[in-house]
Every structure is written in C-alpha cells, then in structure tokens.
Amino acid sequence: EAALFIVATPIGNLADIGVRALYVLSLVDRIAAEDTRNTQHMLTRYDIDKPVLAVHEHNEHEAAARVIEHLRAGERVAYVSDAGTPGISDPGARLVDAVRAANLPVIPLPGASAVTTALSVAGAWAQTFTFIGFLPTKARQRDDAIRALASSEPALVFYEAPHRVVDTVRALAQGLGAERKILIARELTKLHEALHVCPLAEGPAFLEADPNRQRGEFVLVVEGRAPDRDGDDAHLHDTLLVTLLDAL
Ligand code: SAM
C-alpha cells in the first residue's frame, strides 16, 4: 500500500542502521533523498539498488509534488536525509506536510539522531532538555539567541560546525554563566568519537589545547539554569504576605 516512509539512517557508523530500515529501504519502489550521491553511496554499502530522487531545499516544492504523484500511482516511497533522522536540523518536514495534506500516509522509522545519542550519555543533569540545533551564524544574532535562552531550566542542546565550535562555546559561557556544565560530544559513533564534560568556562581552553579537538561534528549539551529553590520561593511568598497584611 502506498506510503511515505521517513527513514532514519546512521550518523557515522553504518552498522547503526536498523533492521526495519534496511527492510523498508529494500522494499520501497523509490527512495527520495536530500543528497542523491551520499545516499547512493550508503545504499551501495547496504547492497540496495533503487531509483533515487532528489528532494532538497531548492526543489522542495516540485519534488514533493513528484513524490505525491508516485504515491498516488500506488508506490511506496522512502525519504532519507544525509545522516540521522529527517526533520531534525535536516530537510524532510515540508515533504511530510505536503504528503499529509494530500491525505497520504506518512510512516516514521526511528533510528539514530545526534541529539538523542549525545543526551544518552549526558547524565542526570540533562533529563529535561530543549533542542535548539544550530545557532545563528552571525555573532550578534547568535548572542541575542543565547541571551533569550538564559532562563531555560531544561538543558539546551546545540549542533555546531567545527570552524565555529570554539567561538560558540565561548559565547555560551559569556551568555549563560561560566559555572554551568557542558558536554562536548564530537564525532559520535565514529572512529574519533570523544566526550568531554566540564564547566562552560573551561570549554574554549579544552578545545584549543589540541586542534584535533575542534575537528568533526559536534553536539553541545549545556546545563539549564538552576531552578529557584523551594525555600527561596517560600521566603518570597512570606515577604509578599507581610507586605499585603501591612497594607490592610
Ligand atoms: N538529522 C541529523 C540528526 O538526526 O542528528 C542532523 C543533521 S545536521 C545537518 C548535522 C549536524 O548534526 C552536525 O553539524 C552536528 O552538529 C550534528 N551531528 C551529526 N552527526 C554527528 C555525529 N556523528 N557526532 C556529533 N554530531 C553530529
């Protein structure tokens, strides 16, 4: 039966593909992909040979129309992004909107994502979190965005590119406070995977101590703002009550 399958693929280690993902990729009539070359490469590694159709930012509209045509013709179509879960700092969401608006089924196939992979090793301080993804690239807008996040109690999860990671960690330390913990997760599931937890203030020096520490792909998880302690709240309420009583 016709359906669009949104299929998560590995974020590095190709062995992380799911059994169901492999099954669906080898069963569908066609695979829509963010980057056809990358996807062909991955499919070759899994021994899957299917027609691949490009769906990326610049042709989203007409590509979605083509996918819908294929689905209406009774085909099963899979969509994959370059790495990880489609729709997570990746294209795919507009295709989902268009296919659902056409009243055709959309089926998720879960799998790797850099955000959940990093969070799985962050620890207890990141149990509640807000996924931010990429910050703006211009310093001014980046700093404004960081300021707007300063009061968040949930931990904050960022994606960052290697050439910006030092500046971003420095800006996070300035905007959020030097004491908060940061997990710097680099090259997850890959050969040079590295995890480091330290106070935000120490992040830039850690990264700068060795150029290799700035290479590859990064997830940054930053501790949220410490919650107001109950005692402080109670104190505030007492003060308010006294003020109100005084006013009577
Ligand atoms: N859709 C992907 C997902 O589900 O995680 C994210 C795609 S986004 C365009 C690429 C960014 O994700 C990278 O710049 C990096 O911040 C993060 N990322 C992807 N793979 C990673 C890995 N193996 N290790 C660390 N970060 C990774």
Automatic annotation (TrEMBL):
GO terms for cellular component: cytoplasm. The keyword Transferase applies. It catalyses: cytidine(1402) in 16S rRNA + S-adenosyl-L-methionine = 2'-O-methylcytidine(1402) in 16S rRNA + S-adenosyl-L-homocysteine + H(+). Residues 4-202 form the Tetrapyrrole methylase domain. Coiled coil: none annotated. It is found in: Cytoplasm. One of its GO terms (molecular function) is rRNA (cytosine-2'-O-)-methyltransferase activity. Keywords: Cytoplasm, Methyltransferase, rRNA processing, S-adenosyl-L-methionine, Transferase. It comes from the Bacteria. It is an enzyme of class 2 (transferase). Its EC number is 2.1.1.198. Belongs to the methyltransferase superfamily. RsmI family. Catalyzes the 2'-O-methylation of the ribose of cytidine 1402 (C1402) in 16S rRNA. This is Ribosomal RNA small subunit methyltransferase I. It comes from Pararobbsia silviterrae.
